[in-house]
Amino acid sequence: MLQRTLKTILGAVIVVWAAATITFLIQTLLPGDRATLLLNQQTGQVQERTPEELAPINAMFGFEDPLAIQYLDFLGGLLRGDLGISYTLYQPVTTVIGDQIAPTVILTFTALAVAWALALVLLVLTARRTPWVSRLFSGLEAAAAALPQYWLGIILLVVFALWLGIFPVVSGSGPAGLVLPALTLGIPLAGFLAQVMRTEFERALDEPFVLTARARGLSDSGVRIRHVLRHSLLPGLSLTGWAVGAQFSAAVIAENVFARPGLGRVLVTAVNGRDLPVVCGVVMLVAVIYVITNLVVDTAYTLVDPRLKEPA
Q: How far is it, in rounded angstroms, from Cα 75 to Cα 54?
């Protein structure tokens, strides 16, 4: 277990380091002089700049240092929790992200909970029922997994906000405004989860312990929930590690469709303004969250299936 844990932690460190290196290269290897691009963006005028004009920008952001020094300073800043200074807001990137991270975290994990709830209900109610029921809901799962989130968000907005008036058009930060964005992210993920767990769920229904449980008088629903469901969770947990990072990325779509505050709007503004430190800060945040989630999921494997604690 110790060896396995050390390997997992080492892999996590390598992933974060790789993400940090890529984000640094994005900032430094783009064509054009960064100080000139930044000054032109601030003034709204595209023109050549004199060394005297560029000197304050170069000094503020360290653009004149050798590339290796910039890279080491970048990594050192990450270790201290310093993601740099926003090119447009002149605030620490950690402050810019920290002010908007809470709505995105709430949306991401609410959507994840919605996806798991929908997937589990579909499995328990439809797996290995009559053939037409199984085929129908298996097809619906595939259709849900293929839904474009941007299209789904617009449809939900038009139907439930504009036509029916059940939910607000502008999401804001209230509980009612969280429903449609969470469904936008959760429905496609529920399709993926149900698909990957359905095969294991149906295989578990053929195991001898199911026959034993039925022989003891346990109801069909009890067998499915208390015994079979647990054996189908591992594929879903594996997918969840990827899904959390993907949901943070997809939050960009939901937050812009529903005019919801969060990192999505920050990222869109930063991309439009070529504010690379903020863009790279969001990328690094998603990478770290992805790594942490996979560490948690790896631990959850042994809780779902204690046999994984035993050495191979």
A: 25
Q: How many angstroms separate the Cα of 207 from the Cα of each of 41, 63, 122, 148, 198?
A: 65, 64, 21, 37, 15
Give the whole-angstrom CA distance, residue 16 versus residue 11: 9
**Residue with the two structure tokens 């299209």:** 151
Structure tokens at 253: 């779509």
Q: Please state, as a whole number, how many other Cβ atoms lie within 10 Å of the Cβ of residue 46.
A: 9
- Decide if pLDDT at 172 tops 80: no
- In the predicted model, what is the mean pLDDT of the chain? 81
Are the C-beta atoms of residues 60 and 86 closer than 8 Å to each other? Answer: no
Within 10 angstroms of residue 53's Cβ, the number of other Cβ atoms is 14
Q: How far apart are the first and last CA of the chain?
A: 10
| Residue 149: Cβ-neighbour burial (10 angstroms; 0-12, 13-18, 19+) | buried
Q: 3-state SS of 66-105?
A: CHHHHHHHHHHHHHCCCCCECCCCCCEHHHHHHCCHHHHH
Q: What is the residue whose two structure tokens read 């907005």?
A: 157
DSSP letter, residue 45: -
Q: Is the pLDDT at 70 greater than 50, yes or no?
A: yes
| Cβ atoms within 10 Å, residue 122 | 23
Residues of the chain above pLDDT 70, percent: 91
